[in-house]
Amino acid sequence: MAMFMVLSPDHVRAGRQYILPSISKGKTMWEHGTFYWNELMTRDPEKAKAFYTTCLGWQFSEMPMEDGTIYHLAKLGDDPVAGVFPMSGPKFGGVSEHWMSYLSVDNVDERLELAKTQGAMILTPPFVVPGIGRIAVLKDPGGAVQGWMTPAEIRE
Questions:
Q1: Which of 59, 80, 88, 106 sits CB 3.0–4.6 Å from 32 for a disulfide?
Q2: Is pLDDT of 143 > 90?
Q3: Hey, what domains does the chain have and what are their CATH numbers?
Q4: Beta bridge partners of 83
Q5: Which among 67, 103, 79 is positioned nearest to 19, based on CA atoms?
Q6: Higher pLDDT among residues 2 and 69, named by residue
Q7: Helical spans, DSSP H, in 1-151
């Protein structure tokens, strides 16, 4: 059985305010129910970066996080396309490397209540990341783990 990392508010706060597509372009660019951001959760960021650079042409920049680890922002040209999150330490024991997807929703709290009535399990309750939005992590009735977020409104 595969296990997946469930982000906590501390993991997310560490610089994401600078990397989401809507933030990087200086305006709101999200639509309810669409995929908004993807992160590769890996134990070997350098190997992952080499793979995606060679195969997809991505370039990477480093972003120090509050806990001292480095978050890697993947770009295609000037556009952010994904993040690479380093998994290390005992909290990641038994967690398989995987892509974590975040979907944008119009009201994360209301949507989570609806999801629970349909058999979803909330893994990380909603929390706010200033300048980014309100985020939660859930497991759908089939077991798929994902993040849902209501992005913060960005004003130019």
A1: 106
A2: yes
A3: 9-151 (3.10.180.10)
A4: 39, 73
A5: 79
A6: 69
A7: 9-13, 21-24, 45-56, 108-117
